[in-house]
Amino acid sequence: MGNRVNEAAHLKVSDVFYRDGGLKEVFIIRGATTKTDQYRPGFILAKQHREALIAWRDQRVAEGGFTSSDGSYGGLDPDSDLILGRRGKTWRRLAFNDKKYKTSRGEVVSTKVCGSLENLVRELLKGAGLNYGSSHSGRRTLATWLDRKGYDLELIQLILGHRNPDMTLEYIDPDLPRIKAAFQNIWAGVKPSA
């Protein structure tokens, strides 16, 4: 999907599900929940993502996790958080803590982060054998994969929600064979002068 973990943690059921229970393909990530404070589109297009969200919805409904009184939104309360935690049989909202960081301009900014969800993502990555993964490394991998498939920088920037294409470039790992091929092709017809 390309979202930051904290963007996902702030999603509401009504952000991604229609009233009739259908799952949206494109939704709006509210500006107040983004790092850039600007709304942007989010995407749920991959079959696996869609199936996972439907299964999550069905599990919450079956277990009574913040359900709707009238069956709308696939049976979930539209104002409830999309992602919930659970202790025993009790469903609960995720907790957020303040985190301060410096912007590229040197300004100190505070944001709310969901440490428990970040830790969960890290544990899932470890379980998959990716011991050095983080809650943010998936965004970097996505940017690199999209670049390798030939998608343009503007599209990758849109998916990641970056204001500046320079930031998007920082997410894309260099591909030395591709760089080498580019230089060989550009200089293919040039002969050294005598």
From TrEMBL:
GO-annotated molecular function: DNA binding
Name assigned to this protein: Tyr recombinase domain-containing protein
Keywords linked to the UniProt accession: DNA recombination
GO biological process: DNA integration; DNA recombination
Tyr recombinase domain: residues covered: 1-184
One Pfam family here: Phage_integrase
UniProt entry tagged with the keyword Ribosomal protein: no
InterPro entries the UniProt entry points to: DNA_brk_join_enz, Integrase-like_cat_sf, Integrase_catalytic
Gene3D superfamilies (alphabetical): Intergrase catalytic core
